[in-house]
Design goal:
Rossmann fold, 5-stranded antiparallel sheet
Length: 304
């Protein structure tokens, strides 16, 4: 049986009588990178604010490190780091000076500043005024601030939002390294499936305030069943021939596809087409994209 480091039970938040988060059950194990995925407005940030004690649930429970947040809020939050939306900082101060202000509030050793900056690879820029940082560097400084108290759980809300491809790659690789190098469990939210797919070990999909999928990322990938795409002359007639031969085929006026089959079956289909004077230009395996699965689950709302 799993020992969940974070667990919610029927977590619900109503605003103006309407449930913006409804009966959400999240389960995260130690060492997970949990991808919290959903379209903008699905309830991700509201859920995260409840996890961090920044918003009060209408009903439902939250347990972090096995402790009830209602009874042990301050003790739990001392071991949680977070970055919600954009990091706040003093632009005229350096990274070290910004972190020193937070360090005093947290009452942690000064050595944590150098350790946090090294983790996010900002050591060489530590003495520069933060107003001269790129957006990606500012996001890394925000993560360094969240790591300053040496948390066991790190919660990041859309940390790659607005970054260029190089900045996205930097943040992604940093997040992937944290469980391995720092022993930190990570919850990271995003509306971009392509980002979550490349770093998460476990994923929860939320739509219209409700969790519609939660499992290992590999389980989500298994839903992407492959098909065989055939490039042939006269695809409509080729489609009719395959149907008549008992093969399950689809034709959408632009391409001919058949369900994934053993190599021998694919060879038999191609041989039948050639015998009937169809030119076969190409035979390609085509996996259903995780993007299409995500859009199907969320009713067409979703990632860009």
């Amino acid at each position: 049986m799993n020992e969940w480091i974070l667990q919610t039970e029927r977590l619900t938040k109503k605003l103006g009588g309407r449930a913006v988060v409804s009966d959400v059950n999240i389960q995260m194990a130690k060492g997970d990178i949990y991808g919290f995925l959903g379209p903008n407005g699905a309830g991700k940030t509201t859920t995260i604010r409840m996890l961090l004690g920044l918003a009060k649930p209408t009903h439902g429970g939250i347990r972090i490190f096995g402790r009830d947040m209602r009874k042990h809020r301050m003790a739990v939050l001392r071991k949680v780091g977070s970055l919600v939306e954009y990091p706040s900082y003093y632009g005229h101060l350096s990274a070290v000076e910004n972190l020193e202000a937070v360090r005093r509030l947290l009452d942690v050793p000064k050595s944590r500043i150098d350790e946090a900056l090294a983790t996010v690879r900002l050591t060489k820029e530590a003495k520069r005024a933060v107003k001269g940082y790129s957006l990606g560097m500012k996001q890394r400084l925000g993560i360094a601030t969240a790591l300053l108290g040496k948390p066991e759980l790190l919660i990041l809300d859309e940390p790659t939002n607005g970054l260029d491809p190089a900045g996205i790659l930097e943040i992604r690789e940093l997040i992937k390294s944290l469980p391995r190098e720092q022993g930190v469990t990570v919850l990271v939210s995003s509306h971009l499936l392509s980002e979550i797919e490349q770093m998460a070990t476990r994923v929860g999909i939320i739509a219209k305030g409700q969790i519609i999928f939660q499992d290992k990322i590999d389980t989500l990938r298994q839903r992407a069943q492959s098909k065989i795409r055939l490039g042939v002359s006269d695809p409509e007639e080729a489609w009719r021939l395959l149907l008549a031969g008992g093969y399950k085929a689809d034709w959408d006026r632009s391409r001919l596809t058949v369900d994934m089959a053993p190599d021998e079956t694919v060879a038999a289909m191609v041989a039948a087409l050639v015998r009937n004077d169809f030119a076969v230009y190409r035979v390609e395996e085509e996996g259903a994209s995780l993007e299409s699965i995500f859009l199907g689950m969320t009713g067409g709302e979703g990632s860009l």
